């Protein structure tokens, strides 16, 4: 990684919280509630990319490809990694890029919103806005193909997500209880 791309080492790690986890685990829903609860700002990396590009993540993937999307994601991450007192919702694949993982672990506390593959299947099966859960031609996957794709991505990403400072199981847990659990687990870790 280029030295000028490294985050400033003076950044206080406890000053930002990264939410990570598989697509559909609740990062974009839990993030603003958590931020409001602890008096932090909230940034959603995917929404920042969509605003900058003027199109959806799905459109970016289909028109420019995953590499272009990951480059945009990296640019946004480098902008938000120094924001003070901020909860940052990462994309499901943000931590799969080694340089991103390095920045995330160096500049904030990471909370992994863990969900089982079966629960993910039920949450994602009727969603058409998840490019990694579609066929090469953009068609929706059948149920068995979707289960297999979720399992494959889950197995690849789980070890990266598990490097989080805090892991919270979100399966079947009410939103408020999940946020309360995160706040309790972060107590003493944030400023």
Structure at a glance:
The chain is an alpha/beta fold. 49% of the residues lie in helices and 12% in strands.
Could you characterize what this model shows?
A five-stranded parallel beta sheet has the order 2-3-1-4-5, sandwiched between helices. The chain has helices at residues 27-38, 45-53, 57-64, 66-80, 98-107, 117-124, 143-161, 175-186, and strands at 16-20, 41-44, 86-89, 109-114, 166-169. The model is unreliable at 1-5 (pLDDT under 50). It is built from eight helices and five strands. It is an alpha/beta fold. It has one domain (12-186): P-loop containing nucleotide triphosphate hydrolases (Rossmann fold, 3-Layer(aba) Sandwich), CATH 3.40.50.300. It is globular. The two termini are 29 Å apart.
What pattern of helices and strands is seen along the backbone? EHEHHHEHEHHEH
Basic shape: globular
Rg value: 16 Å
CATH topological fold name: Rossmann fold
Beta-strand proportion: 5-15%
């Amino acid at each position: 990684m280029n030295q000028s791309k490294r985050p400033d080492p003076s950044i206080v790690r406890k000053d930002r919280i990264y939410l990570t986890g598989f697509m559909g685990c609740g990062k974009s829903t839990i993030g603003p509630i958590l931020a409001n609860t602890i008096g932090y700002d909230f940034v959603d990396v995917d929404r920042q990319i969509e605003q900058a590009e003027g199109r959806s993540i799905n459109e970016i993937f289909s028109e420019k490809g995953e590499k272009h999307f990951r480059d945009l994601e990296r640019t946004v991450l480098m902008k938000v990694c120094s924001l003070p007192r901020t909860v940052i919702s990462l994309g499901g694949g943000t931590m799969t890029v080694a340089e991103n993982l390095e920045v995330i672990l160096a500049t904030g506390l990471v909370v992994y919103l863990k969900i089982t593959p079966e629960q993910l299947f039920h949450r994602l099966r009727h969603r058409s806005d998840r490019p990694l859960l579609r066929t090469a031609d953009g068609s929706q996957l059948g149920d068995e193909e979707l289960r297999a794709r979720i399992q494959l991505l889950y197995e690849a990403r789980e070890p990266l997500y598990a490097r989080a400072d805090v892991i919270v199981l979100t399966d079947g847990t009410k939103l408020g209880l999940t946020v309360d659990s995160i706040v309790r687990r972060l107590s003493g870790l944030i400023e």
